[in-house]
Amino acid sequence: MYSIEARQRALALVAEGRSLNSVSKQTGISRWALRQWRTRIDPLPRMSGQAEPCGRCSSPPRLPDDVCAYAYLLGLYLGDGCISPQARGGFQFRVACADAWPGLIEACRTAINRVRPRDGVYILQRQGCVMVTSYGRHWPCLFPQHGTGKKHLRPIRLEPWQQGIVQEFPWEFIRGLIHSDGCRSINRTTRPIGGTTKCYEYPRYFFTNLSADILGLFTGALDQVGVEWKRANKHNISVARRASVALMDAHVGPKY
Questions:
Q1: Report for 13-17, 52-56, 57-61, 240-244: range of highest mean pLDDT
Q2: What does the pLDDT average to over 126-142?
Q3: Of 14, 130, 177, 188, whose CB has the highest number of CB atoms within 10 Å?
Q4: Taking CA 189 as the corner, what is the angle to CA 235 and CA 202, rounded to the nearest 5 degrees?
Q5: Which pLDDT belongs to residue 52?
Q6: Which one is the CATH code of 163-251: 3.40.50.300, 1.10.287.1700, 3.10.28.10, 3.40.50.1000?
């Protein structure tokens, strides 16, 4: 018997258009098994749970069970996440995470598990990164920003219930955004003082995104928690003031 996670990983590869032969060679699962899983109406017993309503589908709609984890996952989604409809129904939720940050990969996986514990979470390896992935029918309910086209080419607005979560957990939201499209780095500069050129180093945070709406959500959350920021360029927000960097270090920190 193959585990649910092994079946999901194999079916995800098939759903990407890979041949049964190539998936069989990569996973060690027979083509017969792959064919059976693909053609059965309900090849994965655990996936039947995806048909159950989520909190957003109930009447009246409810917030996610773990709103703190949701705030973090929302930041990751707005930065490096996407939702794709699947030919056989349901949706694939994915967040791209660089191989260099195993702690980030695990944090993303944990957040997905806490937001949708009934949906499996697995890792798809890509060159230089992994896709932390989950299948389910209700991901668009949880992330109504889902739509066709790139995020920076369409409006990105939070629903009132999402705004309430961000206001309650602004640091988790900021941390998710930094972990996706941000970084903590050391800035090096030189200044002439008394005829001598001196070198200075100081830490700073950057957040880069092509979407003006997502940049606005990031700076709005920074304003809420008292972090001073400035616009380095059209798509880049910088946090360099010592007190503000200290706040970011205490609540966000570098990727790991």
A1: 240-244
A2: 89
A3: 177
A4: 80
A5: 54
A6: 3.10.28.10
Integer angstrom CA distances of residue 200 from 100, 159, 197, 247: 28, 43, 10, 21
In the chain, where the domains are located: 1-43, 163-251
Inter-residue contact 76 to 34 (CB < 8 Å): no
Inter-residue contact 92 to 135 (CB < 8 Å) = yes
One-letter amino acid for residue 76 of the chain: L
Residue 39: which pLDDT band, with cuts at 50, 70 and 90? low
| CB hemisphere CA count around 206 (13 angstroms) | 12
- DSSP label at residue 234: T
Count CB-CB contacts under 10 A for residue 75.
Answer: 29
Return the SS3 of 155. Answer: coil
Q: Which helix (H) or strand (E) holds 193?
A: strand 182-193
- Distance CA(233)–CA(60), nearest Å, equals 43
- pLDDT for 50 equals 46
Q: In what side-by-side order are the strands of the sheet with 91-98? A: 81-85, 91-98, 129-136, 121-126
Under 8 Å between Cβ of 103 and 256: yes
- pTM here? 0.78
- In angstroms, rounded to a whole number, what is the distance separating the alpha carbons of residues 106 and 17? 27
